[in-house]
Specification:
The chain is built from 13 helices and 12 strands. The chain has about 375 residues and is an alpha/beta fold. Helix 2 links the parallel strand 1 and strand 2.
Length: about 375
Amino acid sequence: MRAVRGRAVVAALAACLVVAFGTHGAAESPHRAPGRAAGGGGFSIGVLLPDSSTARWTTADKPLIEKRIKELCPDCAVRYANASADVAAQQAQMNSMIANGVRAIILCPVESKALSPSVTRARESHVPVVSYDRLAGGPLSAYSGYDSVRIGRLQAQGLMAALGPGASHDRIVMMNGEPTDPNAAALRKGALSVFQGKVRIGASYNTTNWIPQNAFTNMLAAIAKLGPHGIDGVYAANDGLATGALTALRADDVKPPPPVTGQDADLAAVRRVVTGEQAVTVYKSFKAEADAAAEMALALARGTPVDAVAKQRISNGSGKDIPAFLGTPVAVNRGNVKQTIVDRGVYTVQQICTPEILSACRQAGLTG
C-alpha cells in the first residue's frame, strides 16, 4: 500500500472538495401553532444564520423557517441575513434588525459568547431572541435545537460498533468542530464519555468555521503524525468534516479507510453509509427544528406563551432557564437506513441509490 501520493494530487483534490447537503424531509410538525388572533400579522421576524460554508443553512433551515412563518402569519415579513462566519457582521446585522423594528429574532450565532451583548441589547429593546441550533449567550427568550452531548454519544457508539470487540488498543482521530461553537464542545464531551478507557485518542483537531477543507488539512496532518496504518477510526463531528477527512484519506491512498462518523444525514453521507465508507451519521429533523423556532418566534412577537412548543428547559449560564424545543436525534447506520431515512421521508430510494451504488443498496435492503 502506498502511503502518500504527490502533493500535486493532494492539492488538486483539495481544490475540488465539495460538500453537498440535501434538504431534510419530515412529517408535519406536531407543534401547536401560535394563535393568529393574538396580535395579528403585519410585523417582521428577523432570521440570522452564521455562514455559507455549511450548506444546510441556505438549502434547508432558511427556506423551512420562512415557509413556517408564512404558513402561520401570511402578512408577516421575514428579514434574513447571513454573517458569512464574521462575528462583527452578525453583530451589525442584529443591531440593524433591532433598529428597523423586527418583533422577534431567530439567531444562530457565529460565536455564542460574542453575540451575548447583542442578545442583551435586543432584550433591552423588547425584541425577544430565539436561539437556533447553537445556544447563544445572554438573556434568550427560547431555544430550538438538539442535545449535542447526546449526539456525540450516538456518534461515538456508532464508531465503537464499527471498530468491533477488542478495540481497546485502537487509535482514533478526533475531528472536532469550530472551537467557539458550544455545540462542538458538547459533541466532543459526549463522544469522550463513550471513548474514555476504551480507545486511545491519537490526535485531536478543532476545525475552524466547520469548513470541510480545514478538516481535509487536519486529516493530512493526522496521517503524517500517526502513519497510514496508525489510524483505526475517525470521529468527525459532522458530515462535512467527514467529507474532508475521507477525501484526505483517499488522497494519501489509505486503504481500506478507517470507519468515520458524521452528523446531519446529508444525502452524500447517507450514500456513504450505504456503501460502508462512513460508519454512522446522525439524523436530525431540520423541519422540526425550524418549525419550532418559527412558532416560538411568532408567539413571542405576539406576546403569547411558548409552552405548547417548548417542553424542555436549557441553560446558557445566564442564570435563568430557557424554554426549549429539543429534538430527538437518530443514529443512522447501514442496517437501519431504510427505517431511519427512507421510511421517514428524508430521502427516497431513488435519491439515495445512484447507478454506482445499486449493489450496495441491494445489500442494505433498499432495493430488490
